[in-house]
Amino acid sequence: MTASTDLDMLTDFFDRYGVALTVGDIPAIAGCYALPGLVVADTYSFSFTSPAAVALSFVGAAPDYQERELVAAHAAIEDVQPVSALLTMVAVEWEFLDSQGCRVPGERYRYLLRGTDDGPVICTVLRTG
Q: N or C: lower Cβ tally within 10 Å for the chain?
């Protein structure tokens, strides 16, 4: 078990996470997180210590994506920095595709990932733009 800086592994992880977000697969979203986990943005922060708490924090995301007619999410990995033997910081810009096939600008985040035997999991999400 080590920190992942392998772009193929990270791309696969964020592809699965993006699909789970757009289809509203709450158990799959929760499975992408280490517990406890933390989300930090300019005006709020919250933590979660159980899969149910992760689920509650994302339960509104899928209807929002559906309302905006977003059908796909792609994480463009901008930077990967090893932090320690098990931690990696990954800068991502999310790109969305709507039901008409048009690109919809997304937001930027930094994810602190922990390497596990099953692959990376998200420890902390930092919204950066």
A: C
